[in-house]
């Protein structure tokens, strides 16, 4: 659960006092705005559980105090008041560490992307290389935006693999085997000297969908990241689901072929052995003078290459079958596909939908929306920045 925000109003610390109650309610409103960005007063009431009258009174007081900004808007055809935080220069950093890249994004309290960039990394790079590349990007983006290190609320980071939340260490099963066993939380604290928050990249992709994407009012969502590895992030009852130790959504290691290939996890016939981009690359590189890339897969599929279309169709059916098991278990409203193949759009979505409908309980499959992420390769970094906005102590406003 998100950490309690810092005190921003009032001086009476007695828990039963009116000022303490008002302070807690103000913190709930600020935290909702930090997580979701711009909201109407009615949306704030729904998200915080406060009455519309309470929200209206607190919003007016915070506008007078310069904490938030309001503007007229329309919601469901009616006039409404849009509410957003006054950024005041505070910055959250989101970092997405990948198998071959690191992406960094800087965002403000009022949910504006201030700057973003990324660099390619060599396959098999060590953790220190990735962390140093991220540090260089952060320093450069701070210069580009005119911000300073003192404005940083904290840094959120995601990696493509499971993280034990008890220790902050990367555990076996990560697409970055060179990072397994390292104290990622500790290393990042040493490198940046600011509050650090870490998570699996698929969890952060899911968080981005409900905080930056079009699904802010969706309470049950599955985000599937399809890449060299395959992982799922779960939003259940409006909050990220982490299970017992933080290792959830490892759908890439669901068995879809009993007599299939041996997976890197040691099991046989895992979804990753059938539907990962690495598998697609291996299959489509056969007989070609040079190996294809994920960008090539998207390009030749859009051009109608029959081999690419068959490989994608097979992969999509397997993904849909695995997702059907998830849907039968948790019954999400929406499944969002992300990763490096989002450019395929319907070419990938259609076989996934067929596999889902074939293997899910009919009422569940038919009522589950399936969509491609509109956040492209920004989702994980934006989710990492949201982690900071959810959990970092609020700045002095």
TrEMBL record:
Bias class Polar residues marks the residues at 8-20
UniProt cross-references to InterPro entries, sorted A to Z: ATPase_NBD, Cro/C1-type_HTH, HTH_CRP, ROK, ROK_cs, WH-like_DNA-bd_sf, WH_DNA-bd_sf
Q: Which UniProt keywords apply?
A: Kinase, Transferase
MF terms from GO for this chain are:
DNA binding; kinase activity
Q: Tell me the Gene Ontology biological-process terms attached to this UniProt entry.
A: regulation of DNA-templated transcription
Per UniProt, what is one Pfam family of this protein? ROK
Which CDD domains has this protein been placed in? ASKHA_ATPase_ROK_BsXylR-like
Location of the region described as Disordered in the Swiss-Prot/TrEMBL record: 1-23
The chain positions of domain HTH cro/C1-type read 30-58
> Which protein family is named in the record?
Belongs to the ROK (NagC/XylR) family.
Q: What is this protein called?
A: Sugar kinase of the NBD/HSP70 family, may contain an N-terminal HTH domain
> From what organism does this protein derive?
Crystallibacter crystallopoietes
């Amino acid at each position: 659960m998100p950490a309690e925000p810092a005190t921003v109003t009032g001086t009476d610390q007695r828990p039963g006092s009116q000022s303490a109650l008002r302070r807690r309610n103000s913190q709930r409103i600020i935290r909702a705005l930090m997580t979701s960005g711009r909201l109407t007063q009615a949306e704030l009431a729904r998200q915080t559980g406060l009455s519309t009258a309470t929200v209206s009174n607190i919003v007016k007081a915070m506008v007078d105090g310069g904490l938030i900004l309001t503007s007229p808007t329309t919601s469901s055809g009616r006039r409404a008041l849009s509410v957003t935080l006054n950024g005041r220069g505070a910055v959250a950093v989101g970092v997405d560490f990948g198998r071959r890249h690191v992406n960094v994004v800087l965002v403000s309290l009022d949910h504006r992307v201030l700057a973003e960039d990324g660099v390619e990394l060599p396959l098999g790079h060590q953790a220190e290389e990735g962390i140093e590349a991220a540090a260089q990007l952060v320093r450069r983006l701070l210069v580009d935006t005119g911000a300073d290190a003192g404005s940083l609320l904290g840094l959120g980071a995601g990696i493509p693999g499971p993280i034990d939340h008890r220790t902050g260490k990367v555990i076996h099963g990560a697409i970055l085997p060179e990072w397994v066993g390292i104290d990622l939380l500790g290393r990042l604290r040493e490198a940046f000297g600011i509050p650090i928050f870490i998570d699996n990249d698929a969890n952060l992709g899911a968080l981005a969908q409900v905080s930056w994407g079009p699904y802010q009012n969706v309470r049950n969502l599955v985000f599937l990241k399809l890449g060299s590895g395959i992982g799922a992030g779960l939003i259940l009852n409006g909050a990220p689901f982490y299970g017992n130790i933080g290792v959830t959504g490892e759908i890439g290691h669901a068995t879809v072929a009993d007599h299939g290939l041996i997976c890197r996890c040691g099991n046989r016939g895992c979804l990753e052995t059938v539907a990962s981009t690495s598998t697609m690359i291996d299959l489509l590189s056969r007989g070609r003078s040079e190996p294809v890339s994920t960008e090539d897969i998207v390009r030749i599929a859009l051009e109608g290459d029959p081999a690419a279309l068959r490989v994608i169709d097979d992969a999509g059916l397997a993904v849909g079958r695995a997702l059907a098991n998830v849907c039968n278990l948790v019954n999400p409203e929406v499944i969002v596909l992300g990763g490096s193949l989002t450019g395929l759009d319907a070419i990938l979505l259609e076989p996934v939908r067929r596999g889902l409908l074939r293997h899910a309980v009919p009422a569940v499959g038919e009522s589950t929306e399936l969509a491609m992420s509109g956040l492209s390769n920004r989702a994980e970094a934006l989710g990492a920045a949201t982690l900071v906005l959810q959990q970092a102590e609020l700045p002095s406003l």
